[in-house]
Amino acid sequence: MKDEYDFTKARKNPYAKQLKQQITINIDVDTIDYFKEQSKQSGIPYQTLINLYLADCVAQKKQLQMTWK
After folding, report:
1. Is the Cβ–Cβ distance between 38 and 31 less than 8 Å?
2. Domain ranges for the chain
3. DSSP state of 17
4. How far is Cα 24 from Cα 43, in angstroms, rounded to an integer?
5. Considering just the CA atoms, what is the radius of gyration of the chain in Å?
6. Which residues contact 46 (CB under 8 A, 6 or more apart)?
7. Rounded CA separation 51/19 (Å)
8. What is the pLDDT of residues 10-66, one digit of tens each?
9. Alpha carbon distance 26, 39 (integer Å)
């Protein structure tokens, strides 16, 4: 291993904006089961499906609409 490295020609990671952040979230069992079933049908891991769904909500700028009865 070198004592010093030359980073003058280094460039930023082009994929840095695509990095994911690990979080802990509580999701209803029924919701997880739904995405796991979708996962079996599509062959895409269920966590990826959840992320894709949420990313679509962001891209579409969907606003949460809730009504209480």
Report:
1. no
2. 26-57
3. G
4. 24
5. 20
6. 32, 35, 36, 38, 39
7. 12
8. 988 888 777 888 999 999 999 999 999 999 999 999 999 999 999 999 999 999 898
9. 19
Helix (H) or strand (E) holding 45: none
In 3D, which of 60, 51, 62, 58 has the Cα closest to residue 21?
51
Residue with tokens 């802990």: 24
- Separation of alpha carbons 24 and 28, rounded Å: 13
pLDDT reported for residue 25: 96
Given this model, what pLDDT does residue 20 score?
86
Of 42, 22, 47, whose CA–CA distance to 32 is shortest?
A: 47
Its pTM stands at 0.69
Both tokens of residue 15? 């994929």
What are the angstrom distances between the C-alpha of 54 and each of 5, 20, 48, 64?
41, 13, 10, 12
